[in-house]
Amino acid sequence: MERKPIRLSGTSYAVLALLSHLGESTPYDLKQALVRSIENFWQVPHTTFYAEPARLAAAGYLSERQEQHGRRRKLYALTDQGRAALDEWVASPVAAPQEVRDEAILKVFAGADPAPLLHRRREWHATKLAELEGYAQHDEWRLTDHTGPTRTLATGIAYHRFSLSAIDAYLAALEAGDQPW
Amino acid sequence: MERKPIRLSGTSYAVLALLSHLGESTPYDLKQALVRSIENFWQVPHTTFYAEPARLAAAGYLSERQEQHGRRRKLYALTDQGRAALDEWVASPVAAPQEVRDEAILKVFAGADPAPLLHRRREWHATKLAELEGYAQHDEWRLTDHTGPTRTLATGIAYHRFSLSAIDAYLAALEAGDQPW
DNA sequence: TTCCGACCGTACGATCCGTACTATACGGTC
DNA sequence: GACCGTATAGTACGGATCGTACGGTCGGAA
Fold it and tell me: Which segments within A14-170 are labelled E, that is strand?
């Protein structure tokens, strides 16, 4: 079954989890689902993401077959080995600490004025929030169930809402003449 | 001056900014300062970080000289080219969006129970908060000035405090029988 | 004087990433 | 029915990055 041992990264488990939810899918389908759910908390560049199913299949975690018509895209599905690896990972309560990577804070660290960076950041959060709220309205995954994808999308919406309010509070303090910190 | 063109990453600018604050330093000094300030919002594995000053020096952004005694460590300092690159980057108000990478949320996405993950996460934030509050008390960088490193440290403290309170609120809701989302 | 732990760093192969490019399907339109 | 624009659906490639493991160096205590 397993042919070539590989290290499983968070991205690997993201693919396994998506396949568990969606059933047999193409890499493109998986990428779409990623963007609508967990991408907020686990970013993957598309070149990395497209390579992952093939890598997992080569190690025995996924089955691979090809469409017989049209683009002859590859279709992937969990094998028993893949499902077992996913279940084992999910069952363990250990997780790497949260990482926040923020180039704007890095610029402030280097001496930049926070205000213009915050204004741009505010726009970005507003755009993302609208995008996620759109997914929440239209997707088959509804905010009323308690599945993983739904919780994740709701967490993303909460994250952008909170960021907006925190930025607004900071900017208001700045304009009132305070120096928040 | 410039010998071999390289791409400057966030990590590159972190090194330049640290050197701008500290003056001539060894990679180890820089790493220590990183941990006490911006590492909360820009993580760099030590193997990557140690390699960066040499890479920047080879491209002309840093000067390099060696201690004459003891461990004969290498000492790096900004060149004019390095300072110019840093200033230009700081002056531009564009920054990549904030990225949050959270393996715990990824596990919840895959179906894990949030509660045990949150308890562990709570411990981690509490530990980090204590560590940062220690830096704030003892460092030469004081929370009363408004330099970049100080703001960054204060932001890190605020981040961990907020995370703790958010986790506590979520756990309290869970224990009260609610399903927050 | 030798041992230990903190300090300080490098080697190396696997993985990941950004940029650029390719190619296919599909609807409209001239 | 050939053309064209847009969305779809990827691949190629070289440099950057990463985790694991290992290697030396220094001061102090035993």
Answer: 62-66, 74-78, 99-101
